[in-house]
């Protein structure tokens, strides 16, 4: 196991990924890290770092080789962490383990070196003496943040993992509560053949299966309407998926079909896209 050092603007739990400003710096770190290596986080001396963290060893991470997007995790971001709406450290490596260092010694108590800018953008290896001093400190293991459901689905697709299926039906209270906490989709399906144009809005654990169910009943092959998935968003929980569905329907209450209050009438694709984005970002208002 080798120890590396990187400088940060402060650090506390909960623990997200090891973050980098560019893919190049992340790739540079991947070129140095081996399985089991760990990275020590040290507060910078800049104004952005809280005074009680400046120049101090704050924590340790054991990164994996799994590239991730930093905001796929509920990282604690401040307004100053964004430039023109872009997060300053958008890419990262998923962590396997992480520890805080309650003693928070000053860096000059561990090393007499002056570290270059590489330590602020990437990682720099510690020598044997420096590593021994870090290993002698008290380490407190922290719980890691989990990636969002969307990130998990993307990584599963990348690695060819088996498709996630909906939780099994249940009638027990515990089972129902578990299903509410399971990942689920909000969806909008275009009702092909409807006049005026129409979209069916809802939520489901598997929106493709839901479309098949609708089409089985509608029988588009015999001249009926066809339900075609148009937009979908995967949420961490069914509660969130249901909340977005309800927000969309409330916002567009004047467009609801009189016989089906989950069908929106007279919306163009662009109009649906605009309200869909507002729904994902939680910016919908009630009509």
What is the second-level CATH architecture of the largest domain? Roll
Rg of Cα set: 24 Å
**Structure classification:** alpha+beta
Low-confidence stretches: none
Q: How are the SSEs ordered, and which strands pair?
A:
Elements lengths: L2 E6 L9 E3 L2 H10 L5 E6 L13 E13 L12 E2 L2 E2 L3 E10 L17 H4 L2 E2 L2 H8 L4 E2 L7 H10 L14 H8 L3 E9 L5 E7 L2 H12 L7 E10 L2 H14 L11 E3 L3 H12 L7
Parallel strand pairs: 1-3
Antiparallel strand pairs: 1-8, 2-7, 3-4, 4-7, 5-6, 7-9, 10-11, 10-12, 11-13
Helix pairs in contact: 7-8
Provide tags for this entry:
27% helix; 8 helices; 26% strand; seven-stranded mixed sheet
Task: Explain how this protein is built.
Strand 10 and strand 11 (198-204) form a beta hairpin. This protein folds into two domains: 3-147, ph1033 like fold (Roll), CATH 3.10.590; 173-280. The chain starts with a strand and ends in a 7-residue tail after the last helix. The chain contains eight helices and 13 strands. It is elongated. The chain has 287 residues and is α+β, with helices and mostly antiparallel strands. The strands form three sheets. Strands 1, 2, 3, 4, 7, 8 and 9 form a seven-stranded mixed sheet that branches. The protein has a four-stranded antiparallel sheet with strand order 12-10-11-13, sandwiched between helices. A two-stranded antiparallel sheet has the order 5-6. It is 27% helix and 26% strand. 29% of the residues are buried.
């Amino acid at each position: 196991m080798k120890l590396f050092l990187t400088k940060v603007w402060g650090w506390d739990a909960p623990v997200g990924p090891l973050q980098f400003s560019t893919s190049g710096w992340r790739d540079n770190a991947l070129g140095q890290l081996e399985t089991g290596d760990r990275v020590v986080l040290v507060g910078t001396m800049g104004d952005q770092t809280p005074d009680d963290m400046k120049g101090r060893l704050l924590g340790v991470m054991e990164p994996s080789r799994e590239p991730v997007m930093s905001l796929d995790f509920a990282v604690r971001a401040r307004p100053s962490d964004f430039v023109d709406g872009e997060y300053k450290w958008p890419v990262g490596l998923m962590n396997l383990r992480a520890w805080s260092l309650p003693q928070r010694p000053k860096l000059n108590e561990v090393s007499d070196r002056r570290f270059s800018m590489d330590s602020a953008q990437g990682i720099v290896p510690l020598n044997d003496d420096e590593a021994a001093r870090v290993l002698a400190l008290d380490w407190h293991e922290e719980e890691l943040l989990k990636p969002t459901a969307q990130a998990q689905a993307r990584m599963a697709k990348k690695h060819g993992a088996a498709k996630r299926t909906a939780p099994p039906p249940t009638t027990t209270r515990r089972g129902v509560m578990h299903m509410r906490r399971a990942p689920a989709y909000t969806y909008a399906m275009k009702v092909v053949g409807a006049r005026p144009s129409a979209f069916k809005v809802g939520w489901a654990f598997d929106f493709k299966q839901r479309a098949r169910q609708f089409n089985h009943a509608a029988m588009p092959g015999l001249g009926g309407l066809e339900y075609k998935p148009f937009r979908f968003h995967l949420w961490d929980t069914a509660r969130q998926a249901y909340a977005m569905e309800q927000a969309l329907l409330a916002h567009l209450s004047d467009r609801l079909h009189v016989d089906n209050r989950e069908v929106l009438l007279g919306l163009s694709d662009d109009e649906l896209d605009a309200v869909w984005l507002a729904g994902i970002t939680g910016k919908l208002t009630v009509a």
